[in-house]
Amino acid sequence: MTWHVDEKISDGIYLRHLADFPQWKKIDEMYPEFGSEPRNLRLGLCTDGINPYGTLNSTHSARPVLLVIYNLSPWLCMKRKYMMLFMMISGPKQPGNNIDVYLAPLIKDLKKLWEEGVDVFNAHKQESFKLHAIIFMMINDFPTYRNLSGYSVKGYKACPICEADTHYLQLKHGRKTVYLGYRRFLDRFHPYRRLKKVFNGTPEHGLAPKPLIGEEVYRKVERIDVVFGKNKKIVGEKNIWKKKSIFFDLPYWCNLDVRHSLDMMHVEKNVCDSLIGTLLHIPGKTKDEINVRLDSAEMGIREWLHLQLKEGGKRVYLEPAAHKLSKAEKTSLCRCLHNIKVPQGYSSNMKKLVLMDDLKLVGIKSHDYHVLMQQLLVAIRGIMKDDVRNTITKLCIFFNAICSKVIDTEKLDELEKEGYVILCQLEMYFPSAFFDIMVHLIVHLVREVRLCGPVYLRWMYSFERFMKVLKGYSKNPYRPEASIVERYVAEEAIDVCKGYLSGVEAQLRLCWQLQLGS
After folding, report:
1. Alpha helices in 280-411 (DSSP H)
2. C-alpha closest to that of 137 among 254, 250, 44
3. Residue 491 and residue 102: Cα distance in Å, rounded?
4. Residues near 91 by beta carbon (within 8 Å), at least 6 away in sequence
5. Hey, CA dihedral for 377, 380, 385, 386, is it positive or negative?
């Protein structure tokens, strides 16, 4: 529990642990009594829905609530052995907004751990002390973000960090809300701000929105009155905040700079999925369709890409866009991915994911998207236009830098500015439908790294693997959640006994050998 004080090495430039970053230090400064005891716990909380039956056609959804301990070293805190299953929210349906009702026992325990503490005996130092704990942050996907925070992550103001200043555009023909206007994040005199033709036809003079702090969020939600239950509605005026989160009952919750961490795993997966679908023009996944071209004509931008009628108006011709690949280029890209060989356990067998006949990728998992984005999209070398290829390559390098285990504080500002430029360049070359909310969240990733620390301590890969283990514990189809909890408790008890009786097996073996010798 004291690794972050006794053994952590920090030179102020290369940062490796959450204890090196502002949110951890802010807690120590605001609550010196809590920070003075290094054994006090800083916990990360994650929850997500799982299907305990293991079949995709079942509608049953259980929801485990997991806790991790950030006091430990980076190579231990995300290991399965140190994850705790605090509760299991039973199905068959997801709790949705009513998740606060199920989390009430957790909040009660956390308030006790914060205000009163519990008596704990330290066997190493042979002393007793009062142990306190704090929820350092929440880790969850974007739909669960809505249920836990009470913020509606759909519609015009879908970004919970920009909130009312979210720049949105409703596509008339595509019937989709997109999020553009990334030039306002650039420096005041950046040349992209003056460009018109390749953007929305007007120069950009706006300023980047300021992220909401905890006190501002609390003032917005403190008067919202919600009645939990089926088909219950919010009492009062219409608000993008749907409820006051139960976590605001914790005295310190308002003071955290990042309360709900954006999950890098899902952001990267969705961005890569849209990118691959658009480049290969996969039906159902491509963002460049007839309706998108109609919306461009409606907005009066990119005249060279508007629909053209041929043969007396009987046929429609789509002018190739900058990101458009010819059949030969698609074949080259798919053949390169098809022939890639990776070590065992590195990723899925790419040969099975690429359909050469249809020139598309199928059955890709979240980690495969991670590998594609950071390592394998080098396959675009030698194809498409240089400007578009360089932009995609820089996007891959950006994600690779974000996921670094060692953070160079001197390069964070440069990396953040580079991210804004990449988004502006994507806006220049890709259709408007490409820019969904997941692409927009890229602008906030560096901010969270600056405040909270490395991404690999805050993404859901480790939690998803542990949830896969929990799904394997379900042996009773009639009571799957109870079956999971029972086997988890049994496993924990066995681990404690193994630790307590660690030397018994060797002693018994020695006694048995001595008895045989005599």
Report:
1. 290-299, 327-338, 350-353, 366-374, 386-402
2. 44
3. 24
4. 52, 60, 61, 62, 63, 480, 481
5. positive
Beta bridge partners of 44: 68, 137
Tokens matching residue 3: 């690794």
Phi then psi for 140, rounded to 5 degrees?
-165, 165
Which DSSP string corresponds to 13-50? SEE-SGGGSHHHHHHHHH-HHHHT-TTSEEEEEEE--B
Whole-angstrom distance, CA of residue 22 vs CA of residue 15: 11
Q: Which amino acid is at 70?
A: Y
**Cβ-contact 64, 50 below 8 angstroms:** yes
Residue of 406, 382, 131, 380 whose CA lies nearest to 275:
380
> In the structure encoding, which two tokens stand for residue 14, read together?
């290369």
Per-residue pLDDT 10s for the chain (518 aa) are: 888 888 887 777 788 888 888 999 999 999 999 989 899 999 999 999 888 887 766 788 889 999 999 999 999 989 988 999 989 998 888 888 889 899 999 999 999 999 999 999 988 888 999 999 999 999 998 889 988 988 888 888 989 998 888 899 888 888 889 998 899 999 988 999 998 888 888 888 888 899 888 888 888 888 887 777 766 555 545 778 888 899 999 999 999 999 999 999 999 999 999 999 999 888 888 888 888 888 888 887 777 777 777 766 677 777 888 888 889 999 998 999 999 888 888 888 888 999 998 889 988 999 999 999 988 888 888 888 889 999 999 999 999 999 998 888 888 999 999 999 999 999 988 988 899 999 999 999 999 999 998 999 999 999 999 999 998 888 888 888 999 999 999 888 888 887 777 666 655 555 555 555 54
Which residue's structure tokens are 């805050």? 458
The C-alpha atoms of residue 442 and residue 455 are separated, in whole angstroms, by 13
CA distance 334 to 322: 19
pTM: 0.89
CA 208 to chain centre: 22
Are 433 and 171 a contacting pair, CB within 8 Å? yes
Structure tokens at 49: 């829905």
Give kind and range of the element (H or E) at residue 315.
strand 315-317
Measured over the CA atoms of residue 493, residue 497, residue 499 and residue 505, the dihedral's sign is negative
CA distance 178 to 158: 10
Question: Per DSSP, what are the bridge partners of residue 317?
Answer: 308
